[in-house]
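>> received
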Amino acid sequence: MADNKIPSPFPPPLPPGPECGNPGDARQAAPEKKAVELAKKEQQKDRTVTPTYAAKYFRSGQFDEEVKLYQVYANRKTGYAELDSKQPFYPGLYCLGAISSLGKTTFVHQMADQIAASGGNVLYFSLEQSRFELISKSLARGFALTKREEENRTKCVSNYPTPSSIDIRRGLTTDYPDKMAAQIDAYTQAVENRLCVIEGDFSLTVEDIRKLTKAYMKDTGTAPVVIVDYLQIIAPTLINKRIPDAKTSIDHIVHTMKIMQRELNLSVLLISSLNRQNYMTPIDFESFKESGGIEYTADVMWGLQLSVLNDEIFSRDGKIKEKREKIKEAKAKLTREIDFVCLKNRYGISSYTIPFWYMPANDLFVPDVISLKKNAP
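>> returned
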């Protein structure tokens, strides 16, 4: 008679021994046994699957240690006050997407400066822009913030200069060398050596990023926030000696980033471009290129979109010409109204929207205080 017993979903118990948290046999201490155990440990170092047993996990104190590690991140801030009030920046894989010219690099780089200024370490992989471009953005932002602070203090219009990052790169600050020197000094004192930029050459693979992150942590003894700018230009890794298609490549990159994040207990932020067909619709999961791997693997998904997409016209089919004109007008403004949108969140509120003003000429994001007050409970 056939055995129709439904198999148990749990594996059978292992025999008594140290791997199960049991006393085992004292004779295991023999030299040859130790050598075998060491060999096994070395063999397991490259494995991505590690078995965990509840009794051993708690009794060994590993759970308590991991709680302590997690608590270290409880006070980590992005520097955007409204975002920090909604979103704890715990270890995890974060993804931020936006269309072109909407300031995704500026938003994230400003965040990196703010984290470093507050005492945190940041490892910034800039795969498209040079460190010269990023530093000039920081200085342009510093000029703009100094002027805003002066005007808030005096309640008068200030004539403090606000050169753009391009002006700074071109050396068009010779009329006010003292102010330029003061901005460089202020930025240097704020971030010190806590923000490390690694320039890419369009050949950096996700495996390279993983190795460089581990090397940075070994050299500095710190666990940095890792930022990758941006996902779609990470060089593909050969799979079965072939260059994979775009979706397979993105999935591999995102999965490897998640493994690294979990293995090293880091906060990792990936910047992503969006599908062109979603440029005239509010941001959603479908907006992300090859969104499958990102949507299911990321712990938190953020997006930036023009606030004009909230207009009623964008909820209707057709009217393509009118939609394009509205988007064109919104992007042409010196101060753009931008919504920061959360699509997915494993660490708190499942979705939220934060309004920002984006000033491209100053490489600066500031809270949209008018909208915040209007929407306040």
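>> The radius of gyration is 25 Å.
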